[in-house]
Amino acid sequence: MRKKSIHKAGALKGEISVPGDKSISHRAIIFASLAEGDSKITNLLNADDVMSTLNAFRAMGVEIHDDDTSVIVKGVGIRGLKEPDDIINAGNSGTTIRLLSGLLSGQKFFSVITGDKYLRRRPMGRVVKPLTKMGARIWGKEGANKPPVAINGCSLNGIEFHSPIASAQVKSSVLLAGITASGRTTVYEPYLSRDHTERMLLAMGASGGKLDDSGFYIDSGSTLESGEINVVGDISSAAFFIVAALIVAGSEIRIKRVGVNPTRTGIIDVLKQMGGDISLENIGDEAGEPVADIVVRSSSLKGVRIGREIIPRLIDEIPALSVAAAVADGATVITGAKELRVKESDRIATVKSELGKFGVMVEELEDGLIIEGRENIRGASVDSHGDHRIAMAMAVAALRAEGDSTIKGVGSVDTSFPTFFDIIESIG
Ligand code: S3P
Predict the structure, then answer these.
(1) pTM for this one?
(2) SS3 sequence of the chain
(3) The predicted structure's pLDDT at residue 214
(4) I need a labelling partner for 58 at 20 to 30 A (CA). Which of 50, 75, 79, 120 fits?
(5) Of 108, 95, 94, the residue nearest 60 (C-alpha)
(6) How far is the CA of 386 from the centre of ligand 1 (A)?
């Protein structure tokens, strides 16, 4: 297991770029594979999770060529995928297994998808239930609730699905099944989750559309046009540096070309509410996704209360946000975040146990956390629990903590952000 030692940092200064957005990178490969003709993807995230998706499409007969600056995907059309010879391995990637389950339910061949030991503990019932309503034939462990899943692809019917949870993976899985289903497939969710699938479908000419703030439909017979996709920087990766610059005294950094889709910017809203000096500059647009430079200066933070409505807009940033809360003035209360229990680790439990080792008082709620901020935190020896975002959040805490810290299990960082520690060194 790889370990990393981190010392308290001096002021963080400089201009950095974070790698391409993970969610958009998965979708770029999926939709370019399903398009008619060649697509060129630039700034695709080169990390294990995205490679799991890329390898899955190669295994289904899609030619994907990779050079240093771009990836060319030779799209095969929505009916052109081939039965894979072997089991598809999604590794640690929930997005890969959930989105592919929807897509492969409507393809006329047999497939099996598995993942690593962490993914094999994560629930699949959330996608299997609506897909089964569409006519999908899916089997899996624990009553088709855990991977591996086996899928006997068949003809599907469109449904109107009211998702009980705000989950982009569930929504996207059903919409991907909807691409080959008969009639119209509509998904509503309680709060709008990240809408990269919808934006990319529309940008590629699918016949679908928005129904209201949290509804989207796709009609049968959609075809997708190939083209160029330039992936914006990942705000979920940027979040670690935003928090680091806020909490390490004297810091000032600029993070260039980060995606600022409003379904993802909850972290900026909450950190500003806490008193963070954060501004967006050079605002623009890349293939239907808003983008900006994020400028951050160290700030005194105060505790804040956040609840259910904002959670889908910052679900992956709660480990980073918890570190900001740990050094804020007063308590931060996070509720309505039960989904954290089924992420790469149970992030309510792992934030409590690992942040606790820095001397921070953290109370675990069934659906959230109460974090008592304090002026000083002490260096600690912590564990990632195989979760990339826990490893990176604890590395950020270590930059502020007195003395030295050690993070065990930093190999997990490769799932989303292999250059994370190099960037810390470049500005620290
Ligand atoms: C993702 C959606 C989110 C997020 C995950 C990536 C996606 O999961 O936590 O890291 O790419 O669709 P849920 O949709 O299950 O909340």
Answers:
(1) 0.98
(2) CCEEEEECCCCCEEEEECCECHHHHHHHHHHHHHCEEEEEEECCCCCHHHHHHHHHHHHCCCEEEECCCEEEEEEECCCCCCCCCCCEECCCCHHHHHHHHHHHHCCCCEEEEECCCCHHHCCCHHHHHHHHHCCCCEEEHHHHCEEEEEEECCCCECCEEECCCCCHHHHHHHHHHHCCCECEEEEECCCCCCCHHHHHHHHCCCCEEEEECCEEEEECCCCCECCEEECCECHHHHHHHHHHHHHCCCCEEEEEEEECCCCCCHHHHHHHHCCCEEEEEEEEEECCEEEEEEEEECCCCECCEECCCCHHHCHHHHHHHHHHHHCCECEEEECCCHHHHHCCCCHHHHHHHHHHCCCCEEEEECCEEEEECCCCCECCEEECCCCHHHHHHHHHHHHHCECEEEEECHHHHHHCCCCHHHHHHHHC
(3) 84
(4) 120
(5) 108
(6) 17
Q: Does 86 qualify as catalytic in the annotation?
A: no
What does the pLDDT average to over 297-320? 98
- To test the pocket of ligand 1, the residue of 216, 315, 387 to mutate (highest count of ligand atoms within 8 Å of its CB) is 315
Which of left, alpha, beta for 237 (phi over 0: left; psi -120 to 50: alpha)? alpha
240-276: per-residue pLDDT in tens?
Answer: 999 999 999 999 999 999 999 999 999 999 999 999 9
CA 341/CA 409 separation, integer angstroms: 20
Please calculate the CA angle 112-151-85 and round it to the nearest 5 degrees: 40
**Active-site option among 48, 49, 195, 316:** 316
Res 213 pLDDT > 80: no
Ligand 1 probe mutation, 23, 339, 342, most atoms within 8 A of CB: 23
- For residue 163 and ligand 1, the question of a CB distance below 6 A is answered with no
Which atom of ligand 1 is closest in space to residue 172's alpha carbon?
A: 12
Q: Which two three-digit tokens encode residue 87?
A: 């089991």
Residue 67: pLDDT band by 50, 70, 90 thresholds? confident
